[in-house]
């Protein structure tokens, strides 16, 4: 939620995570540094995501024009209708409603993070790379959290090796 347009390198397809947005009743929506220094990171993304972000920026520019003097420039990618930073809970609510409206299996936004990590691990992405992309300070953290995915990837590796080099016992 803390992403700003300046955090997107549209030429090199890199997103830099530098801030988070949080909400507290007594404080409202506010920006914070990331949880720790390893959470500040740059992530290479695919062209499809860059294209979607470009389309979203065009849409947001239209919203800015329609709002006119009522627009508050925050530089944020995800904003309220008037340009102000959005309450992180709003996106959680929107996502929940989207999942229900489209009859999808129940999953939270944080669950998507776990899905992403599991896909990387099962696709053979090195655990150090997976840890860095997730913002974990060490790969040991990633290994502990995703031990189930690592075990599945290990089983897939055993099957792949057996498929290429089948060993048969002589009778």
- CATH homologous superfamily assignment of the largest domain: Intergrase catalytic core
What is the tally of helical segments?
6
> What is the CATH architecture assignment of the largest domain?
Orthogonal Bundle
Number of domain modules: 2
Class inferred from helices and paired strands:
alpha+beta
CA(first)-CA(last) distance: 63 Å
Say what oligomer this is.
single chain
CATH topology of the largest domain: hpI Integrase, Chain A
| Mass-distribution shape | elongated
Using the coordinates above, name the CATH class of the largest domain.
Mainly Alpha
One letter per element, helices H and strands E, the order comes to EEEEEHHHHHH
Helix content: 40-55%
pLDDT average, as an integer?
88
Task: List low-pLDDT spans.
Answer: none
Strand order of the largest sheet: 1-2-5
Report the portion of residues in β strands.
Answer: 5-15%
Please compute the radius of gyration using only Cα atoms.
Answer: 21 Å
Tally of extended strands?
A: 5
Give a description of the structure.
The protein is an alpha+beta fold. It has two domains: 1-106, Orthogonal Bundle (hpI Integrase, Chain A); 107-171. It contains six helices and five strands, in the order βββββαααααα. The strands form two sheets. A three-stranded antiparallel beta sheet has the order 1-2-5, with no helix packed on it. It has a two-stranded antiparallel ribbon with strand order 3-4. β1 (8-9) and β2 form a beta hairpin. α3 (109-122) packs parallel to α6 and α4 (127-134) crosses α5. The longest helix is centred in the middle third of the chain and has 21 residues, at 47-67. The termini are far apart. The mean pLDDT is 88.
